Amino acid sequence: MSDLPRVWRPLNRPDFGVVDSISEMIRQEEWKDPDLLTGIDRGREVIVVSDYAGDSRESAFQSYSFLLVDLLFIWYWNEVRLHLRKSILPDRRRLSYKKLQSDKSRARCLVPFLRAANSLPGVLVTFLVHKRLRSLFKVDAGGSYPPDINPDHWRPNQFEKLIRVAHLSSLLISGLVREGQRIMWVSDQDEIVPNETLHVEACKIFSHVLSEYLTFKPSRLQFATTRSDDGSLLLEDLSVLPDLAAGCLAEITTSMSDTGLLAAPGILGPMDSGVSKKAHAIVGWLADNTYTLRKLSFAIDYVPPNGLKLKKLNLFLEQPLPEYDFRPDFEDYLRTGHI
To answer: To 10 degrees, what angle do helices 104-117 and 75-87 make?
Structure first.
């Protein structure tokens, strides 16, 4: 088993604190399960799409979700999502976690959209950070941002969120992307990049942090928001996946934390009856890690008085969910040429 090729490249930087612990945990998990991850290093360009949730007062955790995909192999998913937009969402509305239960068209689109997303070559990683953890990373000028950046341009919680996103996404890029690949990082147009001026400064911070993680230079590094979409809604639709994962896991971990079920590593079913139907549907998709799109989830939990504990969340299915298996649809598409 030790001779099998590995997808994950460990960080091996104990001085990086919790991110090095995450890297080591992924290394150990892949050693136990060589199929844990899908490689994204075959194509010329990788897209990194991020979204976040858990800002409401009810949430015990803030969630940060990242989708990394090899753009060379998304053609089938792209065909399906264009078909779904034409047949179910013709008015260009976006699928989003917050609006699922209040919109029948969005709800009807959810399962076929997630089924097609399982064909994407990549990984979807979500980090849940307990809100009692105020700061995860050093934010001095020599560490998390260049000296020409003024943190006062953001509110303190905004800046902490930006720093977390920069470090966590840089960890994933360093572990999965190879030398020579182009990288496009896409964020929703939210509080960490609310306008053009802060977008420019956020790009500088991201570049600065990423340079601390990478041992090579990517052939191109591009930053964008979902507003940069070319009209096809490709960026919008890719960003749906981290949006759904972040929203779902923020809701579920808050519920399990409140009931004490999160005290031990792992999420066990059945879940609390207070969890919404949309969360039940999405967590079933997240729990099934047998398709091309691999999903991982971690909790960074608070340990009083001022400590933290890293946990890999294991989402267990009560029964297989065949409605998320894209392979019969894919075979029909290859045979007929039609979605």
So the answer is: 170
Q: Tell me the β-bridge partners of 224.
A: 186
- CA of 289: how far to CAs of 38, 170, 284, in Å? 10, 23, 10
Tens digits of per-residue pLDDT, 42-57? 999 999 999 999 988 8
Cα–Cα dist 115/323, whole Å: 7
127 - beta bridge partners?
64, 298
Chain center to CA of 32: 22
Distance CA 316, CA 255 (A): 16
CB within 8 Å of 133: residues ≥ 6 apart: 300, 302, 308
DSSP state of 297: E
Q: How far apart are CA 290 and CA 144, in angstroms?
A: 36
Burial of 5 (0-12, 13-18, 19+ CB in 10 A): exposed
Alpha-carbon distance values, 164 to 9, 19, 55, 202, 306 (Å): 20, 10, 14, 12, 18
Reported as a single tens digit per residue, the pLDDT across 206-219 is 999 999 999 888 88
- What is the three-class DSSP state of 336? helix
Q: How far apart, in whole angstroms, are the C-alpha atoms of residue 189 and residue 195?
A: 8
Low-confidence ranges of the chain (pLDDT < 50): 1, 139-142, 268-270
What would the 3-class secondary structure string for 150-216 be?
A: CHHHCCHHHHHHHHHHHHHHHHHHHHHCCCCCEEEEEECCCCCCCCHHHHHHHHHHHHHHHHHHCCC
Phi, psi of 80 (to 5 degrees): -70, -45
Kindly report whether the peptide bond that precedes residue 147 is cis, defined as omega within 30 degrees of 0: no
Using DSSP bridges, classify how beta strands 61-70 and 220-225 pair: parallel, antiparallel or unpaired: unpaired
Give me the sign of the Cα torsion angle 228, 200, 203, 98. negative
Report pTM. Answer: 0.93
Angle at 133 between CA 243 and CA 296, to 5 degrees: 40
Pairing of strands 122-130, 61-70: antiparallel
pLDDT of residue 272: 59
Q: How far apart are the first and last CA of the chain?
A: 39
d(CA 280, CA 250): 13
